[in-house]
Design goal:
heterodimer; A: alpha/beta; 10 strands; 27% strand; B: mainly alpha; five-stranded mixed sheet; 29 helices; globular
Chain lengths: 254, 750
């Protein structure tokens, strides 16, 4: 079964300046055991796409199936089987990481014993044990990011969406995220890894989609992309896209 | 390729209430761990009430000019004035070394000012609980017992001294059996303290006399009369300002308690980025909101409890409980007040959540709440006004009903019916507010935090639709202009010149309702025709509009007659100013000019603005069509209140606005509405002229006596109305458009 199946996805926003098409006709599939790198500059539409996949935003048009469930028709099943790890997520300052994870276990209706065991496992994996029972207020960015990751994996979903998970992390912190993403891949999970850091994506992902102005400008394995563009690195492919866009704009204005 | 491992059914679903309780527990835990919540919950009442008690006491003790309250005392015509002077003089002043009693000359008919300053008050602080001793003003003339009783009951006098047959009357003879009776008004603090002061003086003076009599005559004590106080039931409307102030204070403090958690659990969550992960959990947003509501509600109830306790303790300590609860509030009073505060807490928590769910940040939520709090204060202050009583219609008005009910509960004169009505109305309002909050909370907009890229650089502009911001900006400029120009109309053109006045109002409409939006559209480089909803439409819409325009006024009129019968708006259709205007128009202007200025121009200008420009902007902002329709109609009706606030015009104009709105939405164009509007106004203006023709047809219109329209008119008008409505509302012969297409209609073709 295809873990993620997105067809002709469009999302528009009304702004004071007019209507903006943040996502403009995206089609992509991700299989279990695959890490798909959704790449692009800030504001390319990556986060909006992920939010629609999670059911947090209704698409203007198009269809999304996650883990076999239609996002607009079976939103609760989608949420049980998908998780979103976002760098912009915060923590409840007055709760401890353990209380936070137990609360989410309740939201996902995980039995108490299983939840306690899962917390132990995640605490070891992300080295949270030292501050598991301290309130979240005042924790460092790295600690918060790790707690967030642990929290979002409490229900052990088959599809994992990661939105800039390494933002604000140092080298050790980033490496921990990469290691875990690799582990998820080995476990057969489907992962969509959103980042604007193309170098880190190149090392981690099986396939790539480069978003540009709401569209998926390039899609394929690194090999396929190299053949398509004649470029070795993702960064060069992206810079070419920018260049093409600018010359197109120049031609329009000229 | 690996097979996708599905999350298995994890455990049997817990009952809804249990799941909601779990959601609420976390919200409550988070709120109660926050020191800021605790501060409003516990610290505020602890500090505020004692301070308030001190201030009120200070205020009650010393008037603005520093004088003591004055009490008017009457005395019985059976008592000789000399005896009154003797009995009511202040002994302590005479005895005190610094005694400065003002003694008048009784023979000159002047009564002495028998005053004394209580010792405690001399130092600025009361030594005893309760209101201070009043200054006694004893009337120079004696009165009969009946006069005194009535005067005291009605609050004309504060106390009276009577000489009545004592308990030993019949056993002993003559004046020995008489008794001095002090009358006061039950429950009135000034009257009661006056009576207490009179009693004290009478007893002390009697005892002094007794001692001197015993010295002189060695007669027994029975020679002197008894002194007894007789409280009378009050016939005066005794409204303690404290009785309105205390519930208002409790309500305000309950509100304060709910504000912080409401912001923190909605806008605060969004700002911290925790709302998204909550919404990504497999829990319906409505359940999350219910959990938040439960937490905010519980904190508000806790605040109410702490405040009620703090308030009662303060009242008891300062002695104001006697003043406040003087009306004989029963043992049920406190539980009733508590229940009232609980339902209010529910109502206000839901209102708060629907407001704070809009906001993207803490600061934005606070900015939203300031106007809400000001709006909430207005009815509260209204209830402080004397003479405003809780009635059944007022019991349905949120907040006003609570404060008024609170006042009546403290005064002990709340009826069970009004209590039940207030509680039920507030519960109903709470449910409505909660439903609204759930809708807002569950909407996309809630999740559109600052992280969603909305800037134009991230995407391309596709269509050029009418941005709501332009409509809002234009309306914001127009409203003050419209008010100022309308109010200064008589200065611009002489009010005597009716023709010029008519032309001027037409010019105002054209300039403001068409010219101003045009200027805004030009600036934004947006096409005007589409913004004003000038689109092609089906011919049957035109026919339907014409029929409705000719007949709708009868429906509106009949509805208003029915409404006035129901609620007693007897002058709904009888505004003298309006009538005079119509009379003058008929006398001084020609019908064609009237038709041009009051039918054609308003039809064109108002349809383009209200059903075109404004409704387009509102439709763009909203997901449905009901709210834009309602709001544009309310604004349409409100605009017709300017500048003379003729409220009786509101219901009729609102109905017309709704009808025109429906026509606009069904036809997708503002043009058919113009026909309806012009026909409606034109027909109403022509009724006077048409009267002879109607008489020929056997129809006698007499709109001034608020009677129903004659059947000869109603039946054809009803037929026209039904035909018109069928043409407008009937399904299109073409294929039924999709939901999206239908909603936006042709107005999206900008």
């Amino acid at each position: 079964m295809t873990a993620v199946d997105v067809q002709q996805l469009v999302r528009t926003f009304s702004t004071a300046a007019g209507t903006v098409r943040a996502v403009n006709g995206i089609t992509l599939q991700v299989q279990p055991g695959e890490v798909f790198g959704l790449l692009g500059a800030n504001g390319a539409g990556k986060t909006t796409t992920l939010r629609m996949m999670m059911g947090l935003l209704a698409p203007t048009s198009g269809s999304i199936r996650m883990a076999g469930f239609d996002v607009s028709e079976q939103p609760m099943q989608v949420r049980r089987n998908v998780t979103l790890v976002s760098a912009s997520s915060g923590l409840y300052q007055w709760l401890t990481p353990r209380e936070l994870m137990l609360y989410f276990a309740e939201l996902y209706e995980i039995p108490q014993q299983a939840a306690a065991a899962r917390i132990e496992m995640l605490a070891d994996l992300f080295e949270l044990r030292r501050f598991l029972d301290r309130r979240c207020a005042g924790m460092s960015t790295g600690q918060q990011q790790r707690i967030n990751l642990a929290r979002s994996l409490m229900h052990d979903p088959p599809v994992v969406l990661m939105d800039e998970p390494t933002r604000g992390l140092d080298i050790v912190g980033s490496k921990r995220i990469f290691d875990y993403t690799a582990l998820l891949r080995e476990q057969g999970k489907a992962v969509i890894f959103c980042t604007h850091r193309l170098d880190e994506a190149q090392r981690l992902c099986c396939r790539f989609g480069i978003m540009f102005h709401g569209k998926l400008a390039l899609q394929g394995t690194l090999q396929q992309l190299r053949q398509q563009t004649g470029r070795e690195h993702l960064t060069d492919m992206f810079l070419d896209l920018l260049q093409q866009n600018q010359s197109a704009k120049g031609a329009a204005h000229g | 390729m690996a097979e996708l491992p599905h999350t298995s059914e994890l455990r049997p679903r817990a009952p809804l209430l249990l799941r909601l309780a779990r959601l609420a527990r976390k919200e409550l835990r988070e709120s109660l761990r926050d020191r800021r919540t605790l501060a409003t919950l516990i610290l505020m009442p602890l500090i505020v009430y004692p301070l308030l008690g001190m201030v009120i006491q200070k205020f009650a003790v010393s008037r603005a000019d520093g004088s003591l309250p004055e009490a008017r005392v009457l005395y019985h015509d059976r008592l000789p004035m000399e005896e009154v002077v003797l009995l009511l003089r202040e002994l302590r002043d005479e005895q005190s070394p610094a005694g400065k009693v003002a003694k008048g000359d009784p023979t000159a008919g002047q009564l002495p000012q028998l005053t004394q300053l209580p010792e405690g008050l001399a130092q600025g602080l009361p030594t005893t609980a309760g209101p201070p001793t009043p200054q006694l003003r004893i009337e120079a003339q004696p009165f009969t017992a009946t006069q005194i009783e009535q005067a005291v009951r009605q609050g004309i006098a504060d106390a009276g001294v009577l000489l009545v047959p004592g308990p030993t009357a019949g056993q002993a003879s003559g004046p020995d059996a008489d008794m001095l009776q002090v009358l006061c008004r039950e429950g009135d603090p000034l009257s009661e303290s006056t009576a207490a002061e009179l009693e004290r003086r009478l007893r002390e003076n009697r005892d002094t006399l007794l001692r001197s009599l015993l010295d002189q005559t060695r007669f027994g004590r029975a020679a002197l009369p008894y002194v007894r106080r007789l409280p009378l039931a009050s016939a005066a409307p005794a409204e303690s300002p404290l009785a309105a102030f205390v519930p208002l204070m409790l309500v305000l403090m309950t509100m304060t308690g709910a504000v912080y958690p409401a912001i923190d659990l909605t806008a605060g969550e969004r700002e911290r980025g925790t709302l998204e992960m909550l919404m990504a959990a497999p829990v319906p947003p409505q359940h999350i909101l219910l959990g938040k509501f439960a937490a905010v509600f519980l904190v508000a109830v806790m605040t109410a409890l702490v405040n009620l306790t703090g308030m009662m303790v303060t009242l008891y300590a300062t002695g104001f409980d006697r003043v406040l609860l003087s009306g004989g509030a029963g043992p049920l009073m406190l539980p009733q007040v508590l229940l009232m505060l609980v339902v209010f807490a529910a109502f206000f928590s839901a209102v708060l959540l629907s407001v704070t769910s809009f906001a993207r940040s803490f600061r934005e939520a606070q900015a939203w709440l300031i106007p809400l709090m000001l709006v909430s204060l207005a009815p509260g202050i209204l209830s402080l006004m004397p003479g405003v009583r809780l009635t059944l219609p007022l019991a349905l008005v949120p907040l006003v009903n609570i404060v008024l009910l609170g006042r009546e509960l403290f005064q002990g004169d709340a009826t069970l019916t009004l209590f039940a009505a207030t509680v039920m109305a507030t519960v109903a309002w709470s449910a409505a507010a909660l439903k609204l909050a759930a809708r807002i909370f569950g909407s996309d907009a809630v999740l559109q935090s600052g992280t969603v890229p909305l800037k134009s650089e991230t995407g391309e502009h596709l269509t050029r639709e009418l941005p709501p911001a332009i409509v809002a900006a234009c309306s914001a400029v127009m409203l003050p202009l419209f008010i100022i120009i309308s109010m200064s109309r008589h200065r611009l053109v002489s009010p005597e010149n009716t023709n010029a006045q008519l032309l001027l109002s037409a010019a105002i409409l054209l300039t403001l309702f068409i010219g101003l939006p045009l200027a805004f559209l030009r600036t934004a480089r947006l096409p005007a025709a589409a913004a004003f909803a000038v689109h092609p439409f089906r011919p049957r819409m035109l026919a339907g509009s014409l029929l409705l325009g000719l007949s709708a006024w009868t429906l509106v009129y009949e509805l208003l007659i029915m409404a006035s019968g129901l609620s007693g708006w007897s002058r709904l259709l009888e505004n003298p100013a309006l009538r005079e205007l119509v009379d003058r128009l008929t006398r001084e202007t020609s019908l064609p000019l009237q038709l041009f200025c009051l039918a054609l121009v308003p039809a064109v200008a108002e349809e383009l603005f209200f059903r075109g420009f404004l409704l387009n902007g509102l439709l763009h902002r909203s997901r449905g069509r009901t709210w834009p329709l309602l709001l544009s109609s309310v604004l349409f009706a409100a605009a017709h209140l300017i500048p003379d606030l003729a409220l009786e015009r509101f219901p009729g104009t609102l109905l017309l606005g709704l009808l025109l709105g429906v026509v606009r939405l069904r036809s997708g164009s503002a043009l058919p509405g113009m026909v309806l509007h012009a026909a409606n106004n034109g027909l109403l203006l022509s009724l006077e002229t048409l009267q002879p023709w109607l008489m020929v047809a056997g129809i006698n219109l007499n709109l001034s006596n608020e009677s129903h329209l004659p059947a000869q008119l109603l039946i054809p008008a009803g037929l026209l109305l039904i035909t018109g409505a069928t043409l407008i509302l009937g399904r299109s012969p073409r294929s039924a458009p999709g939901k999206h297409h239908e909603r936006m209609g042709s107005e999206t073709g900008l």
